[in-house]
Each structure stands twice: as structure tokens, then as C-alpha cells.
Amino acid sequence: MQYIITAPAALDCTVKLPASKSISNRALIISALAGSGIMPDNLSDCDDTEVIVKALKDNPETIDIKAAGTAMRFMTAYLATTEGEHVITGTERMKNRPIAVLVDALRYIGADISYVEKEGFPPLKIKGKKLRGGELHIKGNVSSQYISALMMIGPTLKGGLELHLEGDIISKPYIDLTLWMMKEFGAEAEWTSYDVITIKPRPYTPRTYYIENDWSAASYWYEMIALNARPEDRIRLTGLFDGSKQGDSITRYLFSLLGVKTTFEKSADGMPGTVCLKYSGHGVTRLDYDFLNCPDLAQTIVVACVAMHIPFHFTGLQTLKIKETDRIEALKTELRKMGYVIEDRDNSELIWDGSIQGRSANSAPEVAIDTYEDHRMALAFAPMAFVRNYIRINDPQVVTKSYPHYWEHLDEVGFEICEEHKE
Q1: What are the residues whose beta carbons fall under 8 Å from the beta carbon of 54, sequence distance 6 or more?
Q2: Whether 352 contacts 340, CB under 8 Å
Q3: Where are the alpha helices (DSSP H) in 38-143?
Q4: Is residue 242 annotated as part of the catalytic site, yes or no?
Q5: Residue 423 pLDDT grade (very low, low, confident, very high; cuts 50, 70, 90)
Q6: Domain for residue 11, yes or no?
Q7: How far is residue 227's CA from residue 223's CA, in Å, rounded to a whole number?
Q8: Which residue in 233, 248, 296, 370 is the catalytic one?
Q9: Looking at the domain assignment, is residue 207 inside a domain?
Q10: Residue 351 is part of a domain; what is its CATH number?
């Protein structure tokens, strides 16, 4: 299936963003470890969260988490410390995403985990039991989801957990989000050194929990207002905190560099408020940025910059190679279709000098963007409809992984979306 997307001339809308996938998935695991029968409020309805809900509710012998990397990491640690025997598996892409770092760490503290097919990769056979915990060393430059998975089971371990992170620490805001949420559920956990997290063996306390909406989803609306570049436009995004613990709340800063101004309307009852966006037109002419702490925003910012003709040099992108797809190669391939030739370096950098080779932004109208089973490819490329006559997106249904109602929301604010079936 393919969508042909045409942008509206103007934007003046209020959008109810989806709930945060990152917070939802952590809240579900921590609530389950707390023995809570209370489901978190405002839970995300995206694919990645629903597979965790189903696994926790049905407790099947074989758990299929499909393409949900977060679910694979979090559920692996959860199952290792929870009574029962399970096999956890996923899509073919998931079976090629490495998990040995997490498995080795869990085995070190007593977990019974074996590989069903290929060494170092899912599927996994897990025999859950009480784990001893103790001191554990893990590289800081691996996926922060490995680290968060270990942290969340820390309070359930006999000896607690002293987690030493070696070398550079990437995606630290996600680690801090996990730590903050653990404390919200009564855990004794803190940074005791710049690279050591200490978690006491104190059980979680069951509680009600309200989930903030998703700053990652907000980034695509920031992108839209930046690309339409009309000072008269207004977008209001509901359900967000000023001072959010979500790492991708850095969106507001990054897009301020691209000319988007953010103001907050706070809620009187302490609940999340509304973010108001407008285009100021005062942005940078070149952008250099290290995405070490927010790699999931890379696709949005790369696409925004080429569409706005802003040269860039982006670093800290090493985890993009092992996401839903190889995002570095996917970005290079799809942007090349429109004449934007992006250079990569050391599997961790992307560079664009501002040149367009052979085509203008509006030429080659039949170009279709492939999404590679990666939700963020569809989400990030759709706003390019503002700088082209229209844009074609292949396999647009991939957005259900994190933002199931994205296309409905675009339709509601004036986008024209035509569906075609590929032969």
C-alpha cells in the first residue's frame, strides 16, 4: 500500500498526541514487578505497548513481541526474574537485532536464558527465578534499553544492583527517565557516581500512575510548522509537561534552532498542559549537533534540515545501525531519490553540505519513500509534503508501532491522503 500525501496551505489546529511509548512501557513493567493490579492511566495504544500488555495479561508460553525492540529488552529482564518458563520471539528483523549484551548481564546475576536459534539473537528461552543481583559492569555505549531493563528489575534482586557503566554513556536521558519512574514507585535508586547506579533491594510500591503524552510524536508537528514556514500558523499539542523527563523533550530546543518558538499553557491541576508552536523565521543557517542522548530524533531533524536547505554535521548516531532498520543507510537511500546526497562517517555521523544533485526538491514527483518496517521513516518524511507538490510513502501502516492515529490526525488538520495499492 502507498499513501500520496498533499499538505494544507495553512496550519491552525489542536492535536491530541499519543501517550508516551517510553513511559508506558516502563510503567507497565514496574507496575507488574510491584504486583499491582492497577493499569496505568492514559496508556499508549501503539503496537510496542500493546505487545507488553498482551504478554503480561495472557502470560503465554511463547511471547511474540513482533518488531518491538523495547518490549524485547524489557520483557527479557522481567521474565528472567519472574517465575515461569517462556520463549520470547519477534519478527525476522527482531531475530537479527543483537541481544547478547543483555543476556550476558542477566546470566551473570543468575538468570537461566538460552538461545533458541542463533547465538546472540532472539528467540530466547527463559526460565524465570529469583536472581541474586550484586555488582554488574556493562558498557555505557550500548542501547540504553539494556541498561533500563536491568535497572527496573534491580529492586527485586536479592542483593539489589550496583550497575557500573563503562566508557561513554549514550541516551542518558532515557536512563534518567527510568530512574525517575522507579523512584515514583518507591524504589531506592540513584546515581552514586558519574558512572554508577546503585539500587537497593526494596520492593516497589503499587500505585496509580498517569502517563504524559509523547514528545517524540510532538517532533513531527514541530517539523510541519518549520517546513510550512508561515508565521501565521499555530499548532497546539496537548498533554505535555514543561520540564518533562522524556529525553525527546529536547525537541523544543532543536526546533528553536530551526525557527520554531514554543510556549506553554500549564494545567491548573498539575496535569500535563498544552504546547503552542509558531514559526518565527529566526533559525540557524547550519546545524551541528550530537544526537548521543536523543537518537530517535535524528530522522526528523535530518529530513527537516534538507527540506529547509540547512547544511548539517550530526554525530552520536551509532545506535541507528541497529534500530528497526539501519536508519543511516535508510536515510541516505531515500534522500538520494530526491537529489540530497548525504555522507556518512564511522557509522555514527551524517553530513550534508547543502547541495542538491541533479534534481530540485519538487522534481521526480513519482518518487516514493520506502519505510523499511520503520515507523520513524514514515513519520519523519510525511511533512516533506510541505516543500513538494506531494509525497508518496510506501507501507504507511508502519506508524502503528508508535503513533497509530498519525494519518487520521493529518487528515483532520487538512492533509489530503490518497491510498494506492502497489503492484
Answers
A1: none
A2: yes
A3: 47-58, 69-80, 100-108
A4: no
A5: low
A6: yes
A7: 6
A8: 296
A9: no
A10: 3.65.10.10
